[in-house]
What we know:
Layout: E1 3-9, E2 20-24, E3 30-36, E4 46-52, E5 58-66, E6 69-73, E7 83-93, E8 96-99, E9 103-108, H1 121-144, H2 150-156, H3 158-174, H4 179-188, E10 195-201, E11 212-215, E12 225-226, E13 243-250, E14 256-261, E15 275-280, E16 283-288, E17 292-298, E18 307-308, E19 322-326, E20 331-333, E21 336-338, H5 362-368, H6 379-393, E22 411-413, E23 418-421, E24 423-427, H7 428-431, E25 439-444, E26 462-472, E27 477-482, E28 488-490, E29 494-499, E30 514-515, E31 526-528, E32 531-533, E33 538-550, E34 556-562, H8 573-579, E35 581-582, E36 594-596, E37 599-603, E38 608-613, E39 625-628, E40 635-641, E41 651-657, E42 668-669
Parallel strand pairs: 1-3, 2-9, 12-30, 33-42, 39-41
Antiparallel strand pairs: 3-6, 4-5, 4-7, 5-6, 7-8, 7-9, 10-11, 10-17, 13-14, 13-15, 15-19, 16-17, 16-18, 20-21, 22-29, 23-28, 24-27, 25-26, 25-29, 26-27, 31-32, 33-34, 33-40, 34-35, 36-39, 37-38, 40-41
Helix pairs in contact: 1-3, 2-3
Amino acid sequence: MKAVKKIEISVLHKRTMPLAVYTMQGDTGREIECTVVDWDIPAGATARVWVVKPSKKVVYIDGNIMENSVVFSLTNQMLAEPGVAICIIEFASGDDVVSSFPFNLCIDGSARGDGIPSENESTVLEGMFEALGQDAIKTLNEAKAQVHNVQTAAAESVKNIETIGKAQVDAIKEAGGGVEQALSNYFALRRNGLVFTTKIYKYTTSTSPVGVKMNANENMVCEPSVGRAKGRDDYERYGLFHHFTCNFSVDENGFNHVDALEGQTGFTKYGKVQVGEVTMSAWFGIEDTEDAVLYHYSDSQTELTPHPMKESINPDGTLSPFMIHAKYAAVDIDGMPYSSKGLAPANGCQAAQAKNPVSYTGMITYMHKLGGHYCGTTSWDLFYRQLMMIIKYATTHSQSIMAGCTSYSFQNMNLVEETGVMRVVLTKAQAANYVVGSYVSIGELGAETNKDRYYEYMHNLAYSVQITKIEDVDDTNAAIYVDAPEAFDTTLTTCISTMPWHTGSTDEVAGSDGSPNSNTNGKNPYKIQGIETCIGAYEVLGNVVMDIVTGADGNPVRDVYVCENASILTGTIATVKTTYKKAKAQIPYTAASWKYISEETIDTDLGIMIPTGVSAGSATGFADGLYTDTGTSGQREWLALGALNYGAFAGLWFLHAYYGWSAVDWGIVSGVSPNGTRGEWQAVA
């Protein structure tokens, strides 16, 4: 039994009022026959149906083409929610995609109750890619006869699963489709040309860091999550802000690739993989007025958003339909850097487990082990997070929204000697400073007195291990338990030190933004647009260097050079000056003292924000610190975000411009960026 509703849809002419089809929640016996009245469906084309439910969750199914009509069933998921759903038919032929103008499904609430649970958008998208995976199995079986049964292979070993997963992706690509084409289609359907704007007043007009949301951004609300308690996020209804966890790679020409999406066979967050967040390519604009700076962000090129995000530009100058950012800090596995989950970030302390020094110059060789176009965190990776803070939260005081792990520098001496334990004993007051789930190192100092975490002896009992619980020992003391690889002995010269969080520590946080336990206590990392940030260490930029020169006032200022081609990264300043691009602003002199940033100059061509004013305070202007030393020559690396102990100075606009470009430390980490090589986009006249 089928109840068929026949309607007429348009591809070339948009109706003044969308067509409405009336139906009932939870029905499973309804079909719609959509006849295209102003366009001929090409022979061999395929049709797919997108339905955006009232909650903005999405259903995506195939439709059947009959002459110049598309017939599809209204599934129980399409009708799971009462209200108005939006429906679009997508036609594909070769590389071409054409979509109908939308019509509405008006769904009356069912007397049978609330109906089935409505699946969310990410679950449906994952289902789509799982289906692609199944198609790939069929293709692979027919073409190569190598894959017999996925379930059987999965039972054999994890290695077989990974091998088959890669083969599925390869087979899809060989067939001319795959995850990248699916993502391109998905994002194309959600581009609407809306411009999201935030006005930030200049410091000379208003010292407040709080801006005004304008255009499509007006009345939008965003609240970061805390753990599994999801905050309100009005932005998740728009494709511009949709992001999906993926495995990525960079080819020999510098082009980025999405290899698998979370939920797809072959995807993993662990081991020797690069994990990122993929979102649609985007456009931005910076409007400098007399009293304010307006930050514009859109999914389309508009008068207000003339610049493509740098991550959107392919090495050959063409525009990609998507852009990718590394999700985690780089970890070291067998001497190679990976953006993967569950490990301590690679750093430059003396502990053997730290593996590889991370610095501007050190990362050139380190990242190139993956390929010539890989790079540490780039300036545009950072700019994306800064822009998201301004657009979504309308503030330049990032720590007022999410502080990051920037006030969590604790070191305490053990109080009770013990043998064969996995704990240290502190006073209750001392133990109360530590967070269960965070990470610490435990070292036997012996006669040493310097507690700098750089030294090997600060980690010789347990390196960067997780706190599993904190329990009272008696009326005065408490024990901090850790998951050390083996038991150890403690003495009165045993020291416990907080350390940066491991990668993936924000994965269980609900939604796009937020922290595991608290957004504002300074002890937790956070994620923004799914990207893990402020884990308790500096994030050194891999494509930026500062060169000290004499400024107009006679003080030593810093020129900023940005590399757009990771394959030519260099540690020779003469080469930097001839092959990198010099930013249009200089970093001012702070005379070896911390100053709060009051002004940022945006170089729109290079996608970088440069601190150029230092008159603010900890809660005014950009509310983050800038430090430059008294050196009159030489090069410096760009240390962003701030480490465990920087408190109010830390944040998305923080810059420590003190260390030489080869400096390493326990608190200097970076990411594995796929954006090291970006081309020059030329606007069409």
